[in-house]
Amino acid sequence: MTRIGKGLGDLNTLSVAVPQSVPVNSKAQILITSIGICAGSGGSILNGLDVDMLFTGELSHHEALAAIEQGKVVVTAFHSNTEREYLKQRMINKLSRHIDDEHYQVGKYDLAVSQVDRDPFEVVIAGAKEW
Predict the structure, then answer these.
(1) What letter would DSSP give residue 8?
(2) For residue 98, what are the CA distances in angstroms to 83, 88, 92, 110?
(3) What pLDDT was estimated at residue 26?
(4) What is the pLDDT, as a whole number, of residue 49?
(5) DSSP alpha helices (H): ranges in the chain?
(6) pTM
(7) What is the dihedral of CA 113, 117, 123, 127, to 10 degrees?
(8) Do residues 53 and 74 touch, judged by C-beta distance below 8 A?
(9) How far apart are CA 32 and CA 43, in angstroms?
(10) Rounded CA gap, 114 and 61, in Å?
């Protein structure tokens, strides 16, 4: 899970759901050989994939339950966290190449991903004094 958090800009909170048949002390030994990934809300896109893990920004409660009943692991990292990192790491380069390929004022534009945008939600520990 540390690698996922680092890949999402040092995110330190993930939601993870595993099949209920997996003993608590065995979660780290779950074999993952295939992953379905979707930035944002991936429920409808990832539904029905034959993979070991679903990784997305968010799934509904019932989508997550359906996935773990099928033996899948679910990892969610909050909707906009996954979209923001996709924009920074992948989309901005693709957009730049597309603009250049279409000869839209080659080199006469600036593309930027907001440095101040953040997820609107915060994880708060019950009883935290500094909230």
Answers:
(1) T
(2) 19, 16, 10, 13
(3) 92
(4) 93
(5) 2-7, 43-46, 61-69, 79-86, 92-101
(6) 0.77
(7) 150
(8) yes
(9) 19
(10) 30
- Which residue matches tokens 């409808």? 44
User: 78: which DSSP letter?
Assistant: -
Mean pLDDT of the chain: 85
Give me the residue spans of the domains in the chain.
Answer: 2-80
In contact, 52 and 75? CB cutoff 8 Å: no
Neighbours of 81 (CB within 10 A): 23
For the record, the structure tokens of 96 come out as 């730049």
Residue with tokens 């380069």: 93
Confidence tier at 116 by pLDDT (50, 70, 90): confident
CATH architecture of 2-80: 3-Layer(aba) Sandwich (3.40)
| Structure token digits, residue 114 | 């907001």
Query: Tens of pLDDT along 34-82?
Result: 999 998 898 889 988 999 999 999 999 999 999 999 999 999 988 888 8
